[in-house]
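Before a colleague's protein record goes any further, I have to sign it off. My question to you is simply how this chain folds and whether the tokens agree. I do not need a full report, just your reasoning and any doubts. This is what I was given:
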Amino acid sequence: MPILNSIVHTIDKAGSDAPATLTPAATAIKDSAAMSDLVAGLNKAYHGKAKTWGRFAEGDEAGVVPPRLAAYLADELDFVTFSRELAEKITALVDDHLPLGGYLLIAHERQGDTDYLSLALLHMRQGFGLDAEQKVVATSQFNLAQPSLAARINLTQWQDDSPSRQYLSFLRDRGGKKLADDFATLLGAQEGVDASSETRTLLKAFSDYVEQEDLPEEQSREKTDAVIDYASDQASRGEPITLDELSELVDEQQPKAFYDYIRQQDYGLSPEIPPDKRALNQFRRFTGRAGGVSISFDSHLLGSSVEYDADQDRLIIKKVPNQLRDQLKQK
């Protein structure tokens, strides 16, 4: 993962009533193994967080960042100048919304054939290490897990004029709604899809499809695991779920069957869906076996199709599978 350009600007703020001040870096940071590891660690932490996905707005709502970013990518503006201008905008946000400043990391990286721009306002945390004499010493390091602000842009999709509605993402879960809204305005971001809602709808469509096909329990479990593994892997890499790929995974013999089912039932899903890890984690299965009874069901069904009575320690199944119902009727 080569780092094409990177820089860290310092934004100082001593407290809620103090003004925020920017100390811009004079030069970019040369690529190194340490910088690559730092950006990779930031990406890993970022991919695991709840985000808003979208794209750049057009016209007057686009703001100043997209045209300046375009100028940098066209070699009409050097990276240091572009990053300093962006840091000045971020400093104003810190001044208005945050009690403390931090270190603004901006990195232009390449993964395979795709370029990304990442930015994050990071803070230091205290830790411990060993010095040359093997003595324990206090040390500071970036806290990658809790940035105050962070965003990531798929530059390749943006420049290729991709039909994707989610080549830009940013955090909304820190600092309050007003900060998130002002951050989106600064970026010129226009919300595309609701990742959590789209992921839940996709998983509902998958459950409906499996139920319609009336698959054996073992086959249903295998397909569920395959879907969740694929979606979780995409989430870990910061990539969207593609309905075409997912459909092939669900049924290799009929690779378009699940995709056609989604379209025919009009679930209103986008061709590409940014996965939400929280929704995915709720879709894992509950399983148990005892005394000749084996039970397995998707965890998201608990509270709807399946209820657990803790007082009497019993499960209530509201909708019996067709195959099981037929066997029971024969008895």
